[in-house]
Amino acid sequence: MFHPLPLAIGLRYVRSRKRTYFVSFITWTSLAGLALGVAALITMLSIMNGFEAELRARLVSLAAHANITADAVAPAEWQAIAERARKLPEVVGAAPYVEVEAMLGNGAELQPAVLRGIDPAVETSVSTIATTLVDGSLAALAPGTDQLVLGRGLALELGVSVGDRLTVMIPTSNAAGEVTPRIREFTVGGIFEAGLQDHDSVLALAHLADVQALRGTSDLTGVRVKYADLMRAPLVSRGVAQALGGRFKVTDWTEQNAAYFRAVRIEKTMMALIMLLIVTVAAFNIVASLVMVVTDKRTDIAMLRTLGLTPREILQVFITQGTVIGWFGTAIGVALGTLLAYNAGAVIEWVQRTLGFQIMDAEVYYITRIPSDPHVTDIVFIAIAAFALTLLATVYPALRAARTQPAEALRYE
Hints:
Elements: H1 4-15, H2 21-62, E1 66-69, H3 75-86, E2 91-106, E3 109-118, H4 120-123, H5 129-132, E4 133-136, E5 147-151, H6 152-158, E6 165-173, E7 179-192, H7 197-200, E8 203-207, H8 208-215, E9 222-227, H9 233-244, E10 249-252, H10 253-256, H11 258-296, H12 298-306, H13 311-342, H14 344-355, H15 376-393, H16 395-402, H17 406-410
Parallel strand pairs: 3-8, 5-7
Antiparallel strand pairs: 1-9, 1-10, 2-3, 2-6, 2-9, 4-7, 5-8, 6-7
Helix pairs in contact: 1-13, 2-11, 2-13, 2-15, 11-13, 11-15, 11-16, 13-15, 13-16
């Protein structure tokens, strides 16, 4: 805790108007740079969090929170596993499914796809497919109708729309191990758009019974599960695996999409480091400003020493001055950054209207708006980091002031 006298002198130096113009300019520049750096860092991390949340929502829109798989499980047993899973804590839905690699053809157009067989009656308990439909209806997937619901990108590649016919081919192997294709015609009953390349350009949905009929077997791939809390999926999945026994493997969405989120984390880290450089530059400006103040106040320091202040108290005077500058800059930056982070969408819309262009063009990007998801922990961490940097920046100038010799400083006065 500072002694009241050094604290009072330090605050007096902050408010002093007798400082040279250049020193004052450097001080205000340092404060502005610190505030802008903190605000930019908070806004950038909030936008990156928003993009991460948007990506997460799109990834799980058609993919369940977790998949239960195992080898050599009878279809009836899978149904029983789905029933058991629904009764487990934090599980809100479970649906058996079958998934195969397929080729879809429309005339000369041929596209690879993942054909997933689902039961529409329980599908809405594990995914949000109904909210992604842009044409047709999920009710079209009735057993025995051979209907498909395609991703928008896949439909565009094949040049089909609702009501068109498609040829579906999947590879199968006979008892001798020979690979033979099974071919069947399906009708496009709907088109969805999840806003993610891995879904829209790859995935095709059909009724579970129709995919089993195409394969010539009633085998299932596993059970898709939805949890009450998406973010607790890794922890809950371990509990589900223990409840079902070691025979079954439970893979949650964080494992299935690890590459996506690893890339986002790396990008967030690099962007944060780059933005933190702005704060560091502002801290160096505070060093320069305080060094100039120490040089300008050599006579004052000498007089204070002759009046009885110790080097430690002189140190506290200039640490107080630098700390106040850092505190004000950080506080202004946090306030500005928080305001921008919580209103990023409105600010971006205003910029687009004013300048007359679209930042996220719908023809290029799946996400056409700038999402923002401020986290209080990020804001607190940035504020602490910025304040710590400015506090460190005061150490050298304060030590230099404390080492000032009164006789040397007053010799030519």
